Amino acid sequence: MSFFNKILSSVGIGAAKVDARLASDRIALMDEVKGIIHVQGGNVEQQIDEIYLSLQTSYLKETDDKKYYQNATITKIKINEPFVIMANEVKEIPFAFQLPSDTPITLGSSKVWLETGLDIKGAVDPSDKDRIEVLPPAIVQTVFAALRDLGFNLRKAENEAAPYHLRKRLPFIQEFEFYPTAGPFRGKLDELEVVISNISPQGVELLLEIDRRARGLGGFLSEALEMDESLVKVMIPNADQQAIRRTLEDVIQRYS
Prior knowledge:
Low-confidence stretches: 1-14, 214-228
Oligomer: single chain
Order of helices and strands: HEEEEEEEEEHEEEEHEH
CATH architecture of the largest domain: Sandwich
Number of strands: 14
Helix content: 10-25%
Number of domains: 2
CATH topology of the largest domain: Immunoglobulin-like
Structural class: alpha+beta
């Protein structure tokens, strides 16, 4: 192969290409992401130093009163040891990894995608992006159903930069914003904000921000001073929907 073709490959023209082919693009939180990485050789022989999978999302951040979206890496996985792919050669490499428990659920504006890349020495690294729909696990589905039973509707789901006291492994939290349209909390609460703090085989830990509706002059003063909100941590064990509903109702009632 000519020196000219090698030069073209080094800037990405006629170079190797990568494509992640997922077994399914709908995956429940903590289930396995499975698929095959399809590598198509280019016009010249090339050494592939690394194939990586990078699970990505974005979150809303505010700096100097300006809001913007920042990308964040949830996890990055190395797939292979270095190898050489010949001109026009095809390689297929299977992969599987568990979706981390702090991956955002793809509701509202929360998006998740898988980026596949080839690390090619001395060349432009080709990459491929695939959107993934992350489904809530059974316990979270049951919690959301219990909130619906209590008259709450989901208004917004968004990834936001985590305040210092809530920051864990990732620089953001996913916040679910509910508002009461019926049931015992209509007229008592402005909204209920829910953050999934931890998921385990025993259940799910939630952070609830309970925003009380202002009542009378004292209520309006409290609201103006942002004293009308309570941040509550609650552990929801694996149970049926009615038991979870009672637990949530008791906690919300106590702080509303």
